[in-house]
Amino acid sequence: MAATTADGDSSVVDVGEVTVHIRCSNGTKFDVKTSLQSLVSSFKAVLAQNCDVPVEQQRLIYKGRILKDDQTLDSYGLQADHTVHMVRGLPGTSTNSAGGATPAVANTTPGVARGVGSNEGGGIGGGIGGASLFHLVTPSTLYKLLKQ
Fold this sequence. Notes:
GO terms for molecular function: polyubiquitin modification-dependent protein binding. One of its GO terms (biological process) is ubiquitin-dependent protein catabolic process. It comes from Papaver atlanticum. This is Ubiquitin-like domain-containing protein. By secondary structure, this protein is α+β, with helices and mostly antiparallel strands. It has two domains: 89 residues, Roll (Ubiquitin-like (UB roll)); 57 residues, no CATH class. It contains two helices and five strands. β3 and β4 form a beta hairpin. The relative contact order is 0.15.
């Protein structure tokens, strides 16, 4: 984004940075400054500098929705001074097209499906009904995470 000059010559308006509150599942909280036009993937990189959760393991939730890397923060309606919840996911949770288990990471956590946050074939039950992590993030589950 380009800053607008004093006489308004720039055609790109400087949206500026806003403060976003981050709340982790372990109870820690911190604030970051970011542009709402940033991609979620870029936002995760900023968060990785402020906490011990690597980008690959970050799962961001805002208003009950899991934020996808290729979308902007603004596309989810995120606003200044709002809170984004971060939970740690399993590393290497991408789904593979064969529908089998990811060989690099064994899933030893009961009730957690591979393909976290995905609506593609690797959801709960190997893609039965297209279930995703969103179905696991119920109000009571989110409440329990927030109370930790």
